[in-house]
């Protein structure tokens, strides 16, 4: 039986981690793995999370099962941050906890498919797991171009995709801090997208995995709120893994807006059934810690301060890159106006290899870099290396 299986290609980023670990050079730079790093190169546990975890240790009195919806205190505490005032829009938005943003994306597309969606429009390049999930559930992908060559959003491409969509289509949009390009729609572009979605009647799924890492929690929610206000029905996939630094605890949530409370209930009876068959219920610990933070004003303030520090550090790195202007054949200026952890450099796979071999700089073969891997100590070396291999 098992001889019927064929080997799958190894995950390229995991292979990169191994190569980086085996490199003895002291000044090697890891721009591959998608986690935040401090100016010292660490990915520490947030102080707010540590304190919340301590409270859980002291006060949690049971680890008995929750339902497939997970910790609803967590799910509801997040809603004002994502949806703003009137977070349920008069009882038309509800959510459930999922294993990370990945679980939320998986649930959103599987449920959309169950509701009759046959094809999903998506800007490319995108987070590679989007296409993998679609392949796994056999939902057709209709790609459109996400970013222009000068590092801006290709608004014409997304509007054309919406305009040409069929009745049984849906569209997936990144809420903020686009992975991998860092290229987000401006507020005005979101307004146009929201209007186009509403007039076409196209069903949107908004994937928000980095709220607070672009321009701020409120600013980064503009797109998702604008879309949800414009359309009668939508899904949102949300991850807390980056903005609370709880990556391995798998903290996410799935939200739906429906036309009315009755339909919303039916949506969640289906979402619960899908979750039950896939993972039964989400892991509790990280979501519980986030709930403890969001229900406590002091811990919330501590979390917001930590998030500000992260965002400001990434802005400083981006500004420093933009100031460098052109390095070899690479224009670094667009990186200054891009958002979040990632940007894509216009380098060839051969140049990526040269950066690794000659300079100890590790990045994805696509040219994606994690800007949080750069520090004020290694950034000049990085810029010089880009000039060297592309000049
Ligand atoms: N969506 C996007 C766009 C992402 O970049 C990621 C994480 N890399 C996720 C979803 C999933 O996040 P999580 O680690 O919470 O599963």
Automatic annotation (TrEMBL):
NCBIfam families: PRK09257.1. The keyword Flavoprotein does not apply. One of its GO terms (biological process) is L-phenylalanine biosynthetic process from chorismate via phenylpyruvate. SUPFAM superfamilies: PLP-dependent transferases. Pfam families: Aminotran_1_2. Keywords: Aminotransferase, Pyridoxal phosphate, Transferase. InterPro entries: Aminotransferase_I/II_large, Asp_trans, PyrdxlP-dep_Trfase, PyrdxlP-dep_Trfase_major, PyrdxlP-dep_Trfase_small. It comes from the Bacteria. This is Aromatic-amino-acid transaminase. Belongs to the class-I pyridoxal-phosphate-dependent aminotransferase family. Homodimer. Its cofactor is pyridoxal 5'-phosphate. Residues 27-386 form the Aminotransferase class I/classII large domain. One of its GO terms (molecular function) is L-tyrosine-2-oxoglutarate transaminase activity. One of its GO terms (cellular component) is cytosol.
């Amino acid at each position: 039986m098992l001889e019927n299986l064929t080997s799958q290609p190894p995950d390229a980023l995991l292979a990169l981690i191994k190569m980086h670990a085996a490199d003895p050079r002291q000044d090697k730079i890891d721009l591959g793995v998608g986690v935040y790093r401090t100016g010292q190169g660490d990915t520490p546990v947030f102080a707010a999370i540590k304190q919340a975890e301590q409270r859980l240790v002291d006060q949690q009195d049971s680890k008995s099962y929750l339902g497939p919806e997970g910790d609803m205190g967590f799910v509801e505490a997040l809603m004002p941050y994502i949806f703003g005032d009137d977070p349920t829009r008069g009882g038309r938005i509800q959510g459930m906890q999922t294993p990370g943003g990945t679980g939320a994306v998986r649930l959103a597309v599987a449920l959309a498919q169950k509701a009759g969606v046959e094809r999903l429009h998506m800007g490319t390049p995108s987070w590679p797991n989007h296409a993998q999930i679609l392949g796994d559930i056999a939902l057709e992908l209709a790609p459109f171009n996400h970013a222009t060559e000068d590092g801006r959003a290709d608004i014409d491409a997304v509007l054309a995709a919406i305009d040409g969509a069929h009745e049984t289509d849906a569209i997936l949009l990144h809420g903020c801090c686009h992975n991998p390009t860092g290229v987000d729609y401006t507020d005005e572009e979101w307004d146009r997208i929201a209007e186009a979605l509403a007039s076409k009647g196209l069903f949107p799924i908004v994937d928000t995995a980095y709220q607070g890492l672009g321009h701020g929690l409120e600013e980064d929610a503009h797109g998702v709120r604008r879309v949800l206000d414009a359309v009668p029905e939508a899904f949102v996939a949300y991850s807390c893994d980056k903005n609370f630094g709880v990556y391995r605890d798998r903290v996410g949530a799935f939200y739906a807006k429906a036309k009315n409370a009755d339909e919303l209930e039916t949506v969640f009876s289906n979402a619960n059934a899908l979750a039950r068959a896939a993972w039964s219920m989400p892991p509790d610990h990280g979501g519980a810690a986030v709930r403890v933070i969001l229900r406590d004003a002091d811990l919330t303030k501590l979390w917001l301060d930590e998030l500000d520090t992260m965002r400001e550090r990434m802005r400083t790195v981006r500004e420093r890159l933009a100031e460098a202007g052109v390095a070899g054949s690479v224009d670094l200026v667009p990186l200054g106006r891009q958002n979040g952890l990632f940007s894509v450099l216009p380098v060839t796979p051969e140049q990526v290899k040269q950066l690794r071999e000659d300079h100890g700089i590790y990045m994805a073969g696509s040219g994606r870099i994690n800007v949080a891997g750069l520090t004020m100590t290694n950034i000049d070396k990085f810029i010089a290396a880009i000039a060297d291999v592309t000049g």
